[in-house]
Each structure stands twice: as C-alpha cells, then as structure tokens.
Specification:
The chain is α/β, with parallel strands linked by helices. The protein has 20 helices and 20 strands.
C-alpha cells in the first residue's frame, strides 16, 4: 500500500466528460482523461484492504459484485501510485486480455464492491485501468509476443466478439495455431457493431486486431459459418473448434393489446411494420454508415478526422432517426445507447419505456454494500436527452399495448399502458392507456439465446434459455471436440464476463489438446 492515508487525503475524481451540447454534434468518445499526477492520486486512494472484494466476483443477492476477471486491483493501483506504470500494466495484463475494451464499456463491478464505497466514494478503478492500457500502448510497453514454439495443433474460433478474441489470444500465446471466423466485415462482434462509436472508438478494435495478427492469429472476415462455410469443413480441418457466436437472437416485443390485423397479445414483427426495428440492427446500421465507404476502412472513409453527423448523412444506407418521434422499449445499456444515437441523428423526440419500477436513488436497507447497488442510473444518453428535450426520457412501469400505422404500413403512433407485477405475472393497470406519436420504434428488450443456424450446423443441443448446452461446469460439448464460450454459452451478459469465459474456455481447450495445461 503506497499511501496509507490516500483514501483520507484525496477525493474521488472521475475522468471529465465533454458537455452534452458539444458531444452530441459528433460520434467521438467524450470522456477526457485526468492528468498523470491526478491519476496517481486516484490510485493512492486504494486501501489494499485485508479482503479486497473488488476482485472477488461474488454472487450476493442474486447479482455479482467484484471483477469476474479477478484483476489484481490493489497491486496495480499501488504500482500506478508509485509511478511504476510498466509494472502496473504487467499486473493488470496478467488477468485481463483487453483492458482497452473493459476500461471503456465495463459497468465496473469492481467499484461497486470497493471498500471505500461502503461509506464514501469508491476508487476510480475503471478510469485507472484505461489510463494504464493507453499509457502502455503510447509508451510501447505493448509489443507483439510471438510464440517461440508452436504445438502443431490447429484451433478454429467461430465468432470474434470479446469471448472469441480472448480464446484466440490465450491459445495463440500458448503456441497453438488459431484461425478466427467472423461473419461481419470487421472483427469485434457487438464491440464493433453493437456498441456506439462514442463509447468505443472502432480504431481501438482495429489496433488490437493488428497486434493479434502480428502475433500469429489469422482472421477470416465476411465468412458466415453455417451458411458460407460448412460446419463439416471446420470440424475436419481443426483439432478443436470453439463457438463464440454470441446471444444475438433478439427478444421480440409482445403487445398487450390488439394490433390491427392480429389477435390480442400478438408479437410485433419488425419486418411487417415499417418503422419498427430491433435496437442492435439500428445501432449496427449507424456504425456501418460511419465506418464503411465502398469497403474502405474507417480512416479512409473519414480520413479528415471528421466524425460529425454530417459525415453520417453522406454515407446513407442506415436507419435514420432525424426529425422522427422515437420510442425505445428497454431500459438497459442498449436502450441508453439508442437514446444517445438518435439524438445525434437529430430525432424530434425520444421516449424510453421500461417495464420495471423506477429504482431508488440510494441503496435501500435490503440492498447493503457490497451487493450490486440496485439504484437509479442516469447514463450519458439520459443526460443528453435531458439537455436536448428538457426532461428525462424514461417512463417506468410502462409497455406498448398496440401500434397504429397509416395506409402504407408506416408506423404512426403507439398506445402505451401502465403495468405491474402481480404473483409474478405482468398485468395491465386499467385506465392508464396513452397514445404517443411514434415514427420509429426501437426494441431493446434483450436477447433470448444464440441464433439457430450456427448451433444447428454443428448439431448442438440448446438449453431452455436458448444457449448452447455443454457439460456441467465445462465449456465442452459432450462427446465432441466442440467448445463454446461467452454469451452463446452463458446467455446475454457483460463484456468482462465474455472475456472471463474466453480465458477459462481456452484453458480447457489447451488441456484437451495437450493432456495438461500451464
């Protein structure tokens, strides 16, 4: 512990945010780092507790608190405070493959369990982590590490999201030959096309790809295994196969009332109603419009460095929210990302519907530290909506009862209704119906498992949650050389969990191939 009184001397100071008035004019990252001296003071606040819950990943009250990667947080905070940046990053990198991702998009489970947060403000673990990895890239601490000895074993990884990348990174460094197959034109999975540029600049992913390629990983993009490439060719050509295809089957929106032409309680089909889209498709279309220009890279497409809304408009071919009354169904991170994105498009209005009750502002007695705090979170999209429209866009305990279209099938308005949970069932509150103008309805209600065609191509069984069924407490599909990790096995979750799954799966694959693992 470098500064035993640090948590008493220094107050928590976050990275600064560019004000909403400025940041909504472009799609650039808007968190600005502290100066180095201030960052070291933030690291000095780490108490090196006797029991560091920050790295525990404990399940308390049905939710996990603490880092799933078990990052050695007190150790690298101590080194950061002392100015030993290279040693500090080495301790971070020991357990975390991609701190540049988690340092941007992780909800910081570590901070929710920080001892300083019991009675005051937690240590800025998330911002410290990002400082370390960006400093490591800047100062050249991160260099390609090519295995000196190869095992002769070949591994195919299908899917290049955070779990697939973690599997590939670990097995490649072990000495196996790894080839990654990705159906999109760029690697990254939801990191690339599911998370907006302002949260994760896509050059960060491209930087990591180049590093992994320099280390020997081979990436095949625009190859859809199960469609473009047969599963049998993958199985025949590799000693082990790891499926990391995500949980991308979007949860449909069930209407509680009657929709014109459908029965009571129908499922809203986005393909049948103009103006209705799944959130991930909407976000993907914007990112692709920003990053693609006749198959050129991001730097070629916007080589001037201009990532403004005007550039987006020039690209075309995306789902446009400009001048529209937008309603978003779903109160999670994806819903928030949709809010921030439609505001940058120039939406006329934004309403966000959430079925659950509004959380309390502070912890309740039944939700003590170090449990995950079940409190109201006002994220960047909500802040921007408040700035632009003058009010919080969220409407709690509300869902869509029915939709109305014009004669051409274009969405015109929706009818909402208040809901409540009684005996575990969602029920309408009579007399609370309300009609809202709506030209664009985005469904951000989560996901219900992996897409069928990839799992079917490998003849895999699914669980009741739509995920791939593996051996208990294992990543291997029983009786095969097929493994699965990340959301495809776990179900929809966080980037940090995907990386943790990828690391654990790689260890099991290594043992399968070699008979032991180091």
């Amino acid at each position: 512990m470098g500064k035993d009184t640090g948590f008493l001397e220094y107050k928590r100071t976050n990275n600064t945010d560019i004000p909403p008035a400025e940041r909504i004019l472009n799609f650039e990252e808007f968190h600005k780092p502290l100066d180095t001296d201030s960052r070291r003071k933030q690291a000095a606040r780490c108490m090196n507790c006797g029991v560091p819950f920050c790295q525990s990943a404990m399940n308390l009250g049905g939710m996990v608190t603490g880092c799933p990667l078990h990052n050695l947080i007190p150790e690298w905070n101590d080194e950061l405070y002392k100015g030993h940046d290279e040693h500090s990053f080495a301790r971070l990198h020991k357990t975390s493959n991609f701190p540049e991702f988690t340092g941007r998009v992780c909800p910081a489970l570590c901070e929710k369990a920080c001892m300083c947060g019991q009675y005051g403000d937690a240590v800025t673990v998330h911002d410290n982590e990002l400082f370390l990895v960006e400093t490591a890239f800047e100062k050249g601490y991160i260099k390609p590490v090519v295995p000196k000895i190869r095992s002769g074993k070949k591994v195919a990884v299908v899917g290049s999201g955070p779990s697939g990348l973690a599997v590939a990174d670990e097995l490649n460094h072990r000495g196996h030959l790894v080839e990654v197959f990705e159906r999109e034109d760029e690697i990254g999975g939801l990191l690339m096309y599911g998370i907006p540029n302002m949260k994760l600049d896509k050059n960060v992913i491209k930087r990591r790809r180049k590093l992994m390629e320099d280390e020997g990983v081979i990436f095949h993009t625009s190859v859809d295994v199960g469609k473009d490439k047969k599963a049998s060719s993958i199985l025949d050509g590799f000693d082990a196969v790891v499926l990391c295809c995500g949980s991308k089957k979007a949860r449909p929106l069930a209407l509680t009332g009657s929709q014109k032409g459908n029965d009571h309680g129908s499922i809203l089909d986005p393909s049948a109603t103009k103006g209705v889209y799944y959130a991930v498709d909407f976000l993907t279309s914007t990112t692709k419009a920003l990053t693609q220009n006749d198959s050129k890279s991001l730097m070629d497409a916007i080589g001037s460095g201009d990532k403004s809304v005007e550039v987006l408009k020039k690209k075309g071919g995306y789902i446009d929210a400009a001048g529209k009354n937008v309603v978003i169904v779903g109160g999670g991170d994806t819903g928030n990302d949709c809010i921030g994105t439609v505001i940058r498009h120039g939406a006329k209005s934004v309403t966000a519907l959430e079925m659950m009750p509004k959380p309390p502002v502070e912890r309740t007695a039944g939700n003590p530290w170090p449990e995950w705090p079940k409190v109201l979170k006002t994220d960047y999209g909500h802040e921007e909506a408040i700035y632009v429209f003058g009010n919080d866009p969220r409407v709690f305990e509300t869902t869509v009862k029915s939709v109305e279209t014009d004669k051409k099938g274009n969405l015109k308005q929706i009818e909402t209704v208040k809901v409540a949970f009684k005996d575990g069932k969602l029920t309408e509150v009579p007399g609370t119906e309300k009609k809202i103008k709506c030209d664009l309805l985005l469904i951000a209600a989560g996901f219900v498992g992996c897409e069928d065609y990839t799992a079917d191509a490998f003849s895999l069984k699914r669980t009741g949650r739509g995920t791939v069924s593996t051996i208990d407490n294992s990543y291997r599909v029983d009786g095969t050389k097929v493994f699965s990790a990340g959301d495809m096995r776990r179900g929809q979750s966080l980037v940090v969990w995907a990386i943790a799954e990828g690391r654990a799966c790689a260890k099991e694959v290594d043992e399968y191939l070699m008979g032991y693992t180091n």
